Q: What sequence folds into this?
């Protein structure tokens, strides 16, 4: 099999490398039929990895607060920011952060998307509304990723004011999904 | 700091699914690069390899598995990793092997075999997100791109049609690339009417998942001059990684790309990149990314890259050709290999060997850039002849 | 002393072909000292030093902290040692980690913040921490950085599927269908090594006993114990001939090292530890080629490091060594590859007591397996021993050998030559 590449030395000017088919780079593409059929061998391997990640201090406290129906951040007196999601160290100042701060469960849509696919690239039956939400009470631009609900696709806009829709207290487990989604605040 | 040259480049086809294993793809690209440098593996002092998540190939310590194919066996061998930025970072890593005096000849290999992961390679990207805050929401990589694209459009008032022009240009340019996976003549209308995936991202805004490999041979000045009369020099490298907390940043502008570029510009003695860079291979896994990155690289003012694109400046016959190769949108996106392909394109363009892809104006200095992680990494290589 | 040897070579070299001059060139001591001072400064400018090192964890589990918080603690200590502000002074950060040990793909995304590296030059090397040191060394040598930081950590306690992860590292087509874990590869290597070098069960038990006991003097060791040779030989087989006690158990921890150019190093610390040489190498990975009686990667990596450092006879050059002992037999195999063991196959075995003391820290058998951080653990132990000896003005510990291996099924390793002179 001839080896070539996209450059002239052994591309257009294949004689340099003495190639029979100068325009053909190495590699054998498979057609969907070859791939789905039994013309080539496969070895299938299934595995499952289990992890039990330590949440640590910052995220552990954040999740605990969510279970209690609150969103918390950490303050840094070095740069005077309120950090959400919280961390025990400030990445800009490289110093330990100082205090826990209760922030609000309202915010503003920083940006959004309407997703028609699942995370395995399959199509969704119902589109999902996702957004980065800047949280009120945190420093400007501080927010996290979440979903939007109780809203029509056409109504969502950058700058839209939203409020957390909490799961009932007995269903909350100390997870980001203790907030079902964010919905437009009243009076919009 | 020693001078460092690129003296050979090679790549495989980029395709959705390839018969060859990752090792075999690495081998084919490495052999093509060594052939073009007229070298044998015994001339190589050390090897640098890059490849993105281990989950694609279904292999832990993927670098170890691939090393035989990349010619690393029995040599000092290093796998570098900065997510999607890896491809352009591989030659930067090979550069410091030579510049530091540790090696005279380095083989730089980028490999990606995304197809083994079922049901779809995209699934690997779920596990790149924060395990506490993001994975429970069922997040996909497409979300964050679409969130970033929306932010970019919203802050600068950019239209989807203007962004689509990038896909039209790059897929068209790829018609002339023998390795290309998705060469196409399409129109803005085709892009606009293609199936929505995560709005505003539509099918034709996105590069494909791919299998493939690409490689370069780097050498010190004295070795380079022995093997070629026409070395191409790496005169600047740069890299930068921003905070992990991507939801705490304004996604409208890639500061990390600016910082990576500034490091490379300083090294190359460039003060006015818009004038001094003749052409660029800018990272384009999505069409808006090319525009976003041109701005981060200071090749366009903030929010003005769409205008330059509309005016034809970035076409092969324009004043500042961008992605004459066809980019990731056209040639394909086997992640680490795609970045190496971009640097290989600089090599071929600067030597005037790009055939039908050769840009119209004479070129002396080119820039390649890649991006990665959670919209977080910038990697830059500047080459001159 | 070694500096002076290096300087003499330099002097001769600078006289070009008239090397024979050197033989009868007699100079006063004062003159040499002055020359050594002047040229020494010039030569040393090219050198790289470890100026700070910090750690956290070193425990079978660290449930109270996330990996980010562990890293922040280790980094804070390393920076404090040499008064470095990572946000301003550090020009390169290198992290060594693997996706599957973290449970996160593209895990380098999570590297910057806790090191103070956000929006700075940071990259990941998917290898052992000592490979990261090699990368930082090249960053300094190439002029990209004058101060560089290397980080690696282990949160193995969070990985409940350690066996599956090791299985995932095996060749997928013809190895994985047969083996379901990497451990048997180690057992087969061990068998081949014992066979070819006529090493006995007792020799290997001696390594276990020595390292477990050495660990009793090290506060960082989670698995130290007063284990006799006889006790070590009664440990149950995991995969014959590999016994449970011969395997380093998993541990959590983080090590952060600060490297600097000679120019910077002198103003940052009174106790720079010089990296006199560094080398790394990989042999073929597949299990069948990994089953070799010799650790070729260690041999080649040592050759590279010794060449840079000007080490001709390692047995007399080094005062002590920190060598990978993830499996007890590996200490012997590595010592042989590094040229620091007195091996005589004709005598029928290989003594566990080498001319160069090995793993006085207790090794991984006492400290635990910290996966990719293991090389930095070896480095930490060596740096602390060199510094302590200097502080006590003891003459015994001035030059150290540090070696790492990436574990099954890799054949990749790195070597560093350290010195305080």
A:
């Amino acid at each position: 099999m001839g080896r070539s590449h996209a450059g002239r030395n052994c591309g257009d000017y294949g004689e340099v490398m003495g190639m029979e088919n100068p325009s053909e780079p190495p590699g054998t593409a498979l057609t969907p039929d070859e791939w789905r059929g039994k013309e080539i061998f496969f070895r299938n391997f299934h595995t499952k990895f289990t992890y039990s990640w330590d949440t640590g201090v910052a995220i552990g406290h954040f999740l605990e607060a969510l279970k209690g129906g609150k969103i918390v951040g950490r303050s840094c007196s070095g740069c005077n920011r309120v950090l959400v999601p919280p961390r025990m160290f400030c990445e800009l100042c490289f110093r330990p952060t100082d205090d826990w701060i209760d922030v609000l469960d309202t915010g503003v849509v920083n940006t959004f998307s309407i997703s028609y696919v699942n995370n395995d690239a399959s199509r969704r039956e119902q589109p999902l509304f996702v957004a980065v939400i800047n949280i009120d009470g945190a420093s400007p631009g501080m927010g996290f990723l979440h979903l939007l609900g109780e809203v029509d696709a056409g109504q969502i806009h950058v700058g839209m004011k939203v409020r957390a829709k909490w799961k009932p207290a007995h269903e909350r487990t100390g997870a980001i999904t203790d907030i079902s989604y964010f919905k437009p605040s009243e009076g919009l | 700091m020693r001078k460092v040259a690129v003296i050979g480049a090679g790549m495989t086809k980029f395709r959705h699914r390839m018969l060859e294993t990752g090792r075999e793809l690495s081998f084919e690209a490495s052999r093509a690069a060594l052939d073009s440098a007229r070298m044998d593996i015994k001339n190589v002092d050390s090897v640098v390899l890059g490849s993105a998540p281990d989950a694609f190939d279904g292999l832990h310590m993927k670098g170890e598995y691939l090393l035989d194919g990349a010619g690393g066996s029995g040599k000092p061998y290093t796998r570098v990793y900065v997510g999607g930025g890896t491809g352009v970072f591989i030659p930067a890593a090979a550069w410091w092997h030579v510049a530091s005096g540790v090696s005279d000849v380095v083989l730089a290999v980028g490999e990606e075999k995304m197809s083994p992961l079922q049901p779809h390679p995209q699934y690997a990207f779920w596990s790149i997100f924060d395990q506490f805050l993001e994975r429970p929401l069922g997040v996909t990589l497409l979300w964050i791109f679409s969130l970033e694209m929306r932010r970019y459009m919203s802050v600068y008032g950019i239209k989807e049609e203007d962004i689509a022009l990038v896909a039209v240009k790059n897929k068209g340019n790829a018609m002339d690339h023998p390795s290309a996976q998705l060469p196409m003549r399409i129109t803005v209308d085709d892009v606009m009417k293609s199936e929505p995936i995560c709005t505003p991202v539509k099918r034709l805004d996105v590069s494909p998942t791919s299998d493939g490999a690409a490689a370069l041979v780097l050498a010190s000045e004295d070795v380079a001059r022995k093997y070629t009369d026409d070395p191409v020099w790496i005169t600047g490298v740069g890299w930068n990684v921003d905070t992990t907390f991507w939801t705490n940043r304004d996604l409208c502008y890639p500061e990390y790309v600016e910082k990576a570029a500034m490091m490379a510009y300083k090294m190359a003695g460039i003060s006015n990149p818009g004038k001094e860079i003749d052409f660029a291979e800018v990272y384009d896994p999505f069409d808006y990314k090319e525009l976003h990155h041109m701005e981060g690289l200071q090749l366009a003012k903030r929010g003005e890259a769409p205008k330059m694109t509309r005016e034809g400046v970035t076409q092969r016959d324009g004043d500042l050709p961008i992605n004459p190769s066809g980019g990731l949108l056209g040639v394909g996106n086997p992640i680490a290999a795609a970045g190496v392909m971009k640097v290989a394109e600089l090599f071929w363009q600067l030597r005037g060997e790009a055939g039908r892809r050769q840009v119209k104006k004479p070129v002396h200095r080119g820039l390649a850039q890649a991006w990665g992680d959670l919209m977080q990494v910038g990697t830059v290589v500047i080459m001159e002849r | 002393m070694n500096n002076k040897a290096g300087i003499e070579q330099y002097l001769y070299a600078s006289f070009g072909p008239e090397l024979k001059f050197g033989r009868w060139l007699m100079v006063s001591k004062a003159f040499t000292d002055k020359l050594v001072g002047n040229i020494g400064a010039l030569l040393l400018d090219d050198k790289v030093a470890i100026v700070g090192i910090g750690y956290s964890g070193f425990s079978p589990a660290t449930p109270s902290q996330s990996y980010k918080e562990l890293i922040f603690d280790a980094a804070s200590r390393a920076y404090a040692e040499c008064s470095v502000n990572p946000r301003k002074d550090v020009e390169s950060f290198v992290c060594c980690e693997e996706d599957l040990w973290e449970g996160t793909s593209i895990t380098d995304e999570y590297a910057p913040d806790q090191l103070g590296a956000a929006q700075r030059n940071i990259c990941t090397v998917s290898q052992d921490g000592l490979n990261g040191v090699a990368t930082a060394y090249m960053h300094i040598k190439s002029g990209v950085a004058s101060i560089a930081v290397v980080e690696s950590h282990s949160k193995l306690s969070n990985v409940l599927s350690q066996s599956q992860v090791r299985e995932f590292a095996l060749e997928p087509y013809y190895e994985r269908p047969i083996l379901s874990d990497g451990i048997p590869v180690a057992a087969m290597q061990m068998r081949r090594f014992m066979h070819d070098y006529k090493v006995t069960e007792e020799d290997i038990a001696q390594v276990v006993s020595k390292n477990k006991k050495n660990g009793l003097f090290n506060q960082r060791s989670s698995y130290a114990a007063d284990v006799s040779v006889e006790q070590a030989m009664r440990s149950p087989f995991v995969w014959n001939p590999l016994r449970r006690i011969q395997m380093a158990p998993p541990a959590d921890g983080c090590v952060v090292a600060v490297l600097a150019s000679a120019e910077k190093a002198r103003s940052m610390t009174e106790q720079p530890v010089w990296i006199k040489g560094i080398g790394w190498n990989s042999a073929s990975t597949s299990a069948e080629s990994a089953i070799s009686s010799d650790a070729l990667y260690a041999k080649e990596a040592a050759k590279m490091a010794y060449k840079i450092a000007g080490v001709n006879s390692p047995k007399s050059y080094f005062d002590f060594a920190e060598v990978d002992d993830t499996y007890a037999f590996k200490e012997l195999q590595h010592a042989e590859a590094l040229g620091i063991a007195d091996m005589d196959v004709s005598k029928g075995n290989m003594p566990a007591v080498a001319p160069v003391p090995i793993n006085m820290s207790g090794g991984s058998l006492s400290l635990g397996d910290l996966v990719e951080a293991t090389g930095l653990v070896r480095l930490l132990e060596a740096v602390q021993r060199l510094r302590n000896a200097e502080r006590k003005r003891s003459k015994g510990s001035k030059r150290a050998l540090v070696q790492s291996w990436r574990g099954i099924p890799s054949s990749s390793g790195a070597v560093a030559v350290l010195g305080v002179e």
Notes: Residues 1-44, 345-352 of chain C have pLDDT under 50 and may be disordered. Residues 2-44 of chain C form one domain. Chain C has two domains: 2-44, 48-159+249-419. The two ends of chain C are 7 Å apart (CA to CA).
